[in-house]
Amino acid sequence: TGPGEPELAALDEPIDDDLLRLIFTATHPALPATSRTALTLKVLAGLQIAEIARAFLISESTAAQRVVRAKRTLLEQRIRLELPAPAERTERLAAVLEVIYLIFNEGYAATAGQDLMRPALCDEALRLGRVLAELAPGEPEALGLLALMELTAARAAARTDAAGEPVLLLAQNRALWDQLLLRRGLAALARAEALGRAPGPFGVQAAIAACHARARTAGETDWAGIAALYAELGALTPSPVVALNRALAVAMAEGPQAGLDLLDAIAASPALAGYHLLPSARAELLARLGRREEARAEFERAAALTRNTRQRDRLLERAAQLARGA
User: Are the C-beta atoms of residues 306 and 276 closer than 8 Å to each other?
Assistant: First the structure.
């Protein structure tokens, strides 16, 4: 037996959950990882091409090509949509975890439309994550993903105000955070850590979410610890988005100029060219440095890039506040 196989023995059992069984089926190794994930998100999770493009920071045409290519491969190789053998399920676990996380992420921060969130997608991803964690109780990444989703979902009620406008994490009323979900998330993270294996990307992200969960107030947040965790995550999965989040954590720990220097170092990354959170993050740090006109322009640039109506309105309001000298 190979590493991790005894811990994944539960995956040998029949999978009774229809959607989870289909996700395992659609993540066939004959497909490139990016193509099979795109196909699964499109066909099984019902995500639109624009949503898939956002998830991978790619163009819509590239996302569409990945779905078409995956379908063509399945057809040409006459791959049947059937449940893989137990050994293959273990190999496909990472792809399945990624699909579940991307479903959750689209639910938690909708790409487009009037709503900031799509709760049904969050709920479905949480359900799948809980099923998978029971199927693979010895797999730290399954537990890490579950912990990450539980801890993130716990903040949902505080993410918008009475008018439905988005509320940034540091301004959220923590009394509105769901205590049951927080306890569940911290318990899942503790189970993952108790396995004694090095955390993977989901485990590290869960540890970051736990830092926020354990802080009773925004001021008590361990930003230096979060910045260190983002550095660890960047070593595991190098990504401009991870680098962006690390820059924001550094800004909180060491000051806005330190964070801005890190953001400017990644600003030319092609993957971030249409990513509205980059100019939004720069705008916040520029505003904190008193560079109001530059910050206003960045908020307007971010507003032009997002297709979520509520996010756009919030960004334009921030730009207007700066224009008024507020």
Answer: yes
* Under 8 Å between Cβ of 158 and 181: no
Query: Cα separation of 245 and 266, whole Å?
Result: 11
Give the CB-side neighbour count of residue 135, counting CA atoms within 13 A.
24
Kindly report the three-state secondary structure assignment for every residue of the chain: CCCCCHHHHHHHCCCCCHHHHHHHHHCCCCCCHHHHHHHHHHHCCCCCHHHHHHHHCCCHHHHHHHHHHHHHHHHHCCCCCCCCCHHHHHHHHHHHHHHHHHHHHHHHCCCEECCCCCHHHHHHHHHHHHHHHHHCCCCHHHHHHHHHHHHHHCCHHHCECCCCCECCHHHCCHHHCCHHHHHHHHHHHHHHHHCCCCCCHHHHHHHHHHHHHHCCCHHHCCHHHHHHHHHHHHHHCCCHHHHHHHHHHHHHHHCHHHHHHHHHHHCCCHHHCCCCHHHHHHHHHHHHCCCHHHHHHHHHHHHHHCEEHHHHHHHHHHHHHHHCCC
- What is the mean pLDDT of the segment spanning 85-111? 77
DSSP lists the bridge partners of residue 112 as 307
Q: How far apart are CA 135 and CA 142, in angstroms?
A: 9
pLDDT tens digits along 267-314: 999 889 889 999 999 999 999 999 999 999 999 999 999 988 888 999
pLDDT confidence of residue 126: 93
The gap between the terminal CA atoms of the chain, to the nearest Å, is: 64
Distance, CA of 176 to CA of 155 (rounded, Å): 7
**Residue-level pLDDT at 5:** 41
- Determine whether 4 is exposed, middle or buried from the number of CB atoms within 10 Å of its CB (0-12, 13-18, 19+): middle
**Cα–Cα distance for residue pair 269/55, rounded to 1 Å:** 16
Backbone angles phi, psi at 321, to 5 degrees: -60, -45
Which residues lie below 8 Å from residue 228, measured CB to CB, with a gap of 6+?
none
Question: In the prediction, which pLDDT does 247 show?
Answer: 97
pTM of the predicted protein model: 0.79
